[in-house]
Amino acid sequence: ACEKLQGAYSMVFVTEDKLVAVRDPHGFRPLVMGRRSNGAVVFASETCALDLIEATYEREVYPGEVLVVDKDGVKSQCLMPHPELKQCIFEHIYFSLPNSIVFGRSVYESRHVFGEILATESPVDCDVVIAVPDSGVVAALGYAAKAGVAFQQGLIRSHYVGRTFIEPSQKIRDFGVKLKLSPVRGVLEGKRVVVVDDSIVRGTTSSKIVRLLREAGAKEVHMRIASPPIVASCYYGVDTPSSEELISNRMSVDEVRDYIGCDSLAFLSFETLKKHLGEDSRSFCYACFTGNYPVKPTEDKVKRGGGDFIDDGLVGGINNIEGGWVR
Prior knowledge:
Elements: E1 10-14, E2 19-23, E3 32-35, E4 41-44, H1 47-52, E5 56-60, E6 65-70, E7 73-78, E8 87-88, H2 90-95, E9 101-102, E10 105-106, H3 107-121, E11 128-131, H4 137-147, E12 155-157, H5 170-180, E13 181-183, H6 185-188, E14 192-197, H7 204-215, E15 220-225, H8 247-250, H9 253-260, E16 264-267, H10 270-277, E17 284-285, H11 287-290
Parallel strand pairs: 8-17, 11-14, 14-15, 15-16
Antiparallel strand pairs: 1-2, 2-6, 3-4, 3-5, 6-7, 9-10, 12-13
Helix pairs in contact: 3-4, 5-7
């Protein structure tokens, strides 16, 4: 059945006597294996989930691998030999929890370094560093540590509101920002504020945040973004908007700064991001930053204006290989 699968996927399913885990040949999405003290094998998308059930992390499910667990143990099969790794870099920027190990790297350490790089490459005189919670917190800690400026909670997040950038309508997204984030006037009033966020998608959330900070008395608002500008849609399992709706696709950094209303704006540079990844840089997917898709979306499977999501398919067949994983 796996021969017929197309797209980016990490799946686990159960039969009467087997537990099966499979990951797509490019490894776009993470999938890990662990084991409990009683010998039970478990799978999860992040290592932090293993901690919750007191399971020990053993390894990733390799890209293109099928693992079959039964009473005789764990058996490995390959969908494709020597696959081209294209792991989603956004797992380290936004999606995964900081206490996870994803693609063999600490998410916390990655985000902290991204913040440090921002403080080095794009410094600004400020009195306080704050984060857009929760995904911007670790990068903000890195920025503050490198800049030698205090980190404080200038925005408090309500955990009863979901992710605003994937809401279907702009009206709901705008209202969601107000419900989700509340400024702390005592931290912000009269201060030159650096606010660190993980990314800018449409720009609407960022503009609302800048307005909230100014209304709370911030003297200056400087935005620092712990990722490069997002200029292209994702076709590998993320419900991002169409490219036309991505603000960095149609505006320069200066134009984005003017649109969201901050005093200065800086993004993590793409080249520095790859430099941080070192030899592993070629194994990541950067399509949302470059528009260069490792698997080209077919013409009838692009995202339409309005943010409708249409999943993409991998091109070509996938062959089953017996005898285990081939590196």
